[in-house]
Recover the amino acids of this structure.
């Protein structure tokens, strides 16, 4: 046990030579930024550890040797430098309990490991880190020696550290004296071979009979066919019995000798193979010689060196099987989106037999690409990474590229024990950010001013040209001024976060549309800004991708606009003074725009516009297309502005001077609110010389084809006549119409839909004759003579039915040899569920039904005889 502790200590520290500098630096990734800590340096100090074996205590000696009185006894040992630097060890010995004192105790080098001293005795040995030297301790027994002697060699460092627990027993005996010397290859790696050499000697003065030299059990598997001896017979132990034939599994080897003369020796050699996975450390093996002069025992120690071997590959396949290192099985490929991290999972395996530390690095990473190492839970990975023998560690290498590119990086693990390296490769194709775009749309359109209580429909548009996505989460955080109504595709409202969340198992390539309906809260204040965006993240897109924002200002009240004019009557050349008062009932200040439409026949009088309800300041308008425009008027919260200006009345102005104005207010957030139209009316007094014209005429069927209304012509009632300025009139029962208070040139038109027959060609006709031009001076007549149908029409009989608001006129007309009935219906108010029943002379009736009747309509149908019946009507009052 005394030798084991220094061995373990040397293993840990000998890996790092004295004077080496160990540097360590921590790294942290925050978003797209990588931060490095300060560098910590540790200088490895020199440590001296002498290792001398085999070990033994006085109670349990590690070796036993026998010698004849006056002769020599030999004890083999192995000295190893277990420190981390080159040291010179002083050599000596100690005597323990004894029946006699030796005449001489010397230490010799034994370079060939045969247990026989070579060269001159030594008192010190210089060894480099990890080096070993075989030694032989020679003890000379006095002639009077009898009994036994305990002694131990010792090795001491310059600093006083020593190994002294290597006790052995020497016995003095007459007659045959068997002595066993055993040696094994001092060091071996797992998978390597160890050569075992067993030598038995008769150091006595009498022949030894029936000698057996036995090595059981073997410390490592036997190499088949490797046992050899020049004398004696070799036998093998299979775990149950000994035999001369080598079994498949050899558990022990034995050499049998009939006799061994004084001074004679016999040698048995064979090979063993160190099993794969054998942990590092010393493996001791004992051989025993039995027979006359025995038993005698020999020990040898092989130090199994640590095997340092490691593999790095894709997760779950660190050895990259079946292809192995550098093959396609050692490579991974991924696609990522620019600005999104992507992680490759790897496994590092310590395939050796001892703990090792591995420095990890990533090479061939383009400039501008961030890279970091972390475990599968996202915690930064320790680097160097320490692994016990046989252990594996899963970790991930994460990359973050800001633009589109394709590259292959190599991930390298370097053993700190041996410097050996193993690599694996990551190929990353980075798609541009535009491969996944989020677009937010709204109805009403963004920028539209919303009112409290108004609904808004948001459309969330995802354009995915990157790759099918999994574990997709879409979040739409609502403005505090909105309340949730409904969402498509299973979107759920989260009251705690005041947001709507969609959880989609998959998002395919192409366009995906989600919709969300919300409502502006009733208590949303004026000039509030409702802003909305949405975010998307997925397994392949861990960093949220955001959409464009859509913004709507909120404003709940309208501006109040009043308009006054004075005087109320004016003559040509007079000035009219107009006063506009614009009030803002909102608590939010506004910037106002006033637009005033002067009446025709008036003109703004420059220098007459003033702003202010108290003190007034000049405020000239812009004249745009005949309108007066005031821009950028400051309208305080709950305040008002007053504007006053003058218009001059010009010749040709209409009798009624109608002036309109409207206002528009814009808040600081861009909300737009308007006023209703304000109107002020003044009358034009033309004076005693005013001239007023009248345009009148008649629409009739010109039966005598002379172009003027004369006896026998038939007037057309209900025809619609229009002027170019929009005025219109219907002809009366005599076919007459009239437009008053006109002057100048006008265009008058007969509505073709109200005239069943085309106009007669006249010189003043425009086009087909439905339009005529007239210069109105005093009373001006414009008739519309229509060409009658071929044949004559005369009214034979007529009757009129009056009932409340309804008037029904029925006439019996003769047209050639045909008899027609004409029904004219007029009502000034709506008549629900209206039905007119007109009996027929030959029996039966014509029925005309309306869900609701109002206005005027003419019905015509043919009858077989000249008989006039009385119609019936009915309707339902509400």
């Amino acid at each position: 046990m005394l030798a084991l502790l220094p061995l373990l200590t040397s293993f840990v520290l000998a890996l790092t030579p004295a004077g080496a500098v160990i540097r360590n630096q921590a790294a942290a990734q925050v978003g797209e930024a990588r931060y490095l800590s300060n560098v910590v340096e540790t200088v490895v100090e020199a440590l001296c550890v002498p290792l001398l074996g085999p070990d033994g205590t006085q109670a349990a000696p590690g070796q036993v040797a026998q010698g004849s009185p006056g002769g020599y006894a030999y004890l083999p040992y192995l000295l190893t430098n277990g420190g981390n630097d080159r040291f010179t060890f002083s050599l000596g010995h100690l005597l323990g309990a004894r029946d006699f004192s030796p005449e001489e105790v010397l230490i010799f080098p034994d370079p060939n490991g045969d247990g026989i001293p070579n060269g001159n005795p030594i008192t010190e040995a210089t060894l480099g880190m990890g080096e070993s030297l075989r030694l032989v301790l020679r003890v000379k027994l006095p002639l009077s020696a009898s009994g036994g002697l305990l002694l131990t060699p010792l090795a001491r460092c310059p600093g006083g550290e020593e190994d002294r627990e290597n006790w052995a027993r020497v016995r003095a005996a007459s007659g045959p004296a068997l002595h066993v010397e055993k040696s094994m290859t001092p060091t071996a790696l797992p998978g390597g071979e160890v050569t075992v050499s067993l030598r038995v000697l008769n150091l006595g003065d009498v022949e030894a009979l029936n000698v057996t030299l036995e090595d059981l059990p073997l410390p490592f598997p036997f190499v088949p066919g490797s046992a050899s001896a020049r004398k004696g017979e070799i036998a093998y132990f299979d775990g149950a019995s000994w035999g001369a034939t080598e079994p498949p599994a050899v558990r022990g080897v034995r050499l049998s000798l009939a006799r061994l003369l004084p001074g004679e020796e016999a040698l048995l050699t064979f090979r063993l193979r160190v099993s794969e996975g054998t942990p590092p450390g010393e493996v001791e093996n004992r051989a025993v010689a039995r027979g006359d002069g025995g038993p005698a025992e020999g020990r040898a120690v092989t130090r199994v060196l640590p095997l340092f071997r490691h593999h790095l590959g894709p997760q779950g396949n660190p050895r990259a099987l079946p292809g192995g290192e550098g093959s396609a099985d050692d490579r991974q490929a991924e696609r990522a989106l620019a600005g999104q991290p992507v992680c490759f999972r790897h496994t590092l395996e310590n395939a050796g037999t001892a703990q090792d530390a591995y420095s990890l690095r990533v090479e061939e990473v383009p400039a501008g690409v961030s890279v970091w190492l972390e475990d599968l839970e996202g915690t930064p990975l320790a680097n160097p990474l320490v692994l016990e023998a046989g252990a594996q560690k899963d970790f991930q290498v994460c990359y973050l590229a800001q633009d589109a590119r394709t590259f292959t990086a190599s991930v390298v693990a370097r053993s700190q024990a041996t410097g050996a390296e193993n690599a694996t490769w990551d190929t990353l194709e980075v798609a541009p950010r535009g491969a996944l775009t989020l677009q937010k749309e709204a109805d009403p359109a963004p920028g539209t001013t919303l009112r409290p209580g108004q609904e808004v429909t948001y459309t969330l548009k995802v354009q995915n040209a990157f790759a099918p996505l999994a574990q997709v989460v879409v979040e739409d955080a609502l403005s505090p001024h909105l309340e949730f109504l409904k969402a498509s595709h299973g979107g759920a409202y989260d009251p705690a976060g005041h947001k709507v969340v969609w959880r989609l198992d998959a998002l395919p390539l192409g366009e995906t549309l989600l919709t969300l309906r919300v409502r502006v809260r009733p208590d949303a204040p004026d000039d509030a800004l409702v802003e909305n965006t949405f975010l998307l993240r997925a397994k392949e897109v861990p960093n949220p991708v955001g959409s464009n924002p859509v913004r709507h200002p909120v404003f709940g009240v309208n501006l109040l606009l009043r308009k006054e004019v004075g005087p109320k009557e004016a003559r040509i050349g007079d000035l009219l003074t107009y006063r506009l008062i614009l009030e803002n009932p909102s608590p939010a200040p506004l910037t106002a725009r006033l637009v005033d439409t002067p009446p025709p026949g008036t003109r703004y009088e420059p220098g007459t516009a003033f702003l202010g309800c108290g003190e007034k300041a000049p405020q000239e308008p812009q004249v745009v297309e005949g309108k007066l425009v005031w821009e950028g008027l400051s309208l305080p919260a709950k305040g008002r502005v007053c504007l006053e200006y003058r218009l001059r009345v010009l010749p040709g102005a209409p009798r009624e001077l109608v002036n309109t104005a409207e206002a528009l207010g814009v808040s600081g957030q861009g909300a737009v609110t308007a006023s209703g139209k304000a109107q002020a009316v003044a009358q034009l007094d033309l004076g005693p010389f005013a001239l007023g014209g009248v345009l009148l005429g008649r629409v009739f069927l010109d039966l005598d084809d002379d172009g003027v209304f004369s006896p026998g012509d038939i007037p057309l009632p209900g025809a619609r006549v229009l002027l170019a300025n929009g005025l219109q009139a219907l002809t009366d029962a005599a076919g007459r119409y009239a437009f008053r208070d006109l002057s100048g040139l006008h265009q008058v038109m007969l509505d073709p839909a109200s005239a069943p027959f085309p106009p007669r060609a006249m010189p003043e006709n425009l086009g087909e004759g439905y339009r005529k031009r007239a210069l109105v001076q005093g009373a001006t007549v414009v008739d519309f003579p229509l060409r009658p149908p071929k044949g004559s029409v005369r009214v034979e009989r007529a009757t009129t039915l009056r009932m409340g608001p309804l008037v029904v006129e029925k006439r019996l007309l003769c047209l050639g040899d045909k008899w027609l009935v004409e029904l004219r219906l007029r009502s000034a108010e709506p008549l629900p569920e209206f039905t007119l029943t007109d009996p027929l002379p030959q029996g039966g009736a014509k029925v005309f039904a309306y869900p609701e009747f109002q206005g005027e309509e003419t019905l015509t149908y043919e009858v077989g005889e000249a008989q006039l019946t009385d119609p019936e009507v009915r309707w339902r009052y509400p």
Observations:
- Residues 1-15 have pLDDT under 50 and may be disordered.
- Residues 229 and 349 are 44 Å apart (CA to CA).
